[in-house]
Amino acid sequence: MVDKTPQAQERRQYERLSKQATITYRCMDEMANDHANHDARLCDFSGGGARFLTNELLSKNSQLILNLEFNGWQNNSGELLWTGSDSDVGKLKAIGIVMWCSTSADKTGFYEAGVRFVGRVS
Question: 0.85 cut: is pTM over it?
Answer without folding.
Answer: no
